[in-house]
């Protein structure tokens, strides 16, 4: 009896404009919801106490690193799994998924230890204000110790993304975000838990989203058949996952180091000190509305590029890249206009004082002017990740944040302190983004000539 030919995955046949919307739109929507609950989180914390908002801002580098480890590992799983499906190797795809789940557990164990033993030292290196330290310890300890929800949610969502079922990630992320939004004021004000209440609401939302992601994978994801009872770690597959994922993790780690050191520069070399660090933290909350949807687009495009790389179809790969850059630039233009035209209204979301407005308005306008450059770099970086060249993304991030941004910020802050101009420090961002764009274009050209161009053009 002749074997039935398996149906072609939509990533190999659906028209690219429709496919990008099909793959990315659910993630873009869910990322917008997540950005909303990030802002709501800080919105309520700001109304509880200014020091609590500062503490949450100072917690960002560690919290961001935790998310980076989870997403970086998932990026490696995503790219390898999609490629295995494109090469028609379903058993390999199953083994990749199982090892990815194991690595998510390892990541959680690392941050559990940090949450138990390292949080107080982390805050003490950034500020000497006792109340800020206490709020920070309350907040970050809960976030880290219960981060199994975050690690599990991200990994199981990526398993669905890798097989083209991105619509379900909208349900999981949206559910977690809505639960967090509802619980925030309850735990912060009704139960009088303050910053710790915001953390409790966050982890409850993550745990429920993780549970839903597991259920949806079991019911809806027919491309994967996991056998966790018989699972044994596969060093070879783990090495391949991290060959792609570690550069992504290091890229986020570089960002966390940058934020940590930038906070110290602001507190040490600007007259506004902790207030400048608070504005910097608020900026990251606001820019999540601009960049998280772009990362959602990016996450939808990565499996498309990886699948068609495995299927040896250059035409579809490049069409996906071009449209991703166009879509990202178009959306980010809206964010740029908001930061340039209404920075004061954006800051008032966080109960900004007149002094905070004085510091924050020029900061948002200067940083916002760089958004288009950053968006193009993110969209083109999807090619690096999808083809297993995550080290290129790491090079771009390292050059932007550690080689250019921090030294420029240090020099400008020192000049600003001597001249009485705290605004100068924010000009480090335009300098760094221009350097980042130039580096990205050079590396993309090299990758295109050496890897993409030799691939057969393929069908439309």
Protein architecture, described:
The protein is an all-alpha fold and 460 residues long. The chain has one domain (13-452). It is built from 17 helices and no strands. The protein has helices at residues 10-13, 16-48, 50-86, 90-117, 119-124, 130-145, 148-162, 167-190, 194-220, 235-269, 274-310, 314-341, 343-348, 354-368, 371-386, 390-419, 428-452. It is globular, with a radius of gyration of 22 Å. The two termini are 33 Å apart.
Describe the structure concisely for a colleague.
By secondary structure, this protein is mainly alpha-helical. It has helices at 10-13, 16-48, 50-86, 90-117, 119-124, 130-145, 148-162, 167-190, 194-220, 235-269, 274-310, 314-341, 343-348, 354-368, 371-386, 390-419, 428-452. Residues 1-6 have low confidence and may be disordered.
Shape: globular
Radius of gyration: 22 Å
The tally of helices reads 17
Helix fraction, binned, reads over 70%
Mean pLDDT level: 90
Termini distance?
Answer: 33 Å
Structural class: mainly alpha
Show unreliable segments: 1-6
Largest sheet: none
How many structural domains does the protein architecture include?
A: 1
Strand tally is: 0
Order of helices and strands: HHHHHHHHHHHHHHHHH
* Proportion in β-strands: under 5%
Write the layout of secondary structure elements.
Blueprint: H1 10-13, H2 16-48, H3 50-86, H4 90-117, H5 119-124, H6 130-145, H7 148-162, H8 167-190, H9 194-220, H10 235-269, H11 274-310, H12 314-341, H13 343-348, H14 354-368, H15 371-386, H16 390-419, H17 428-452
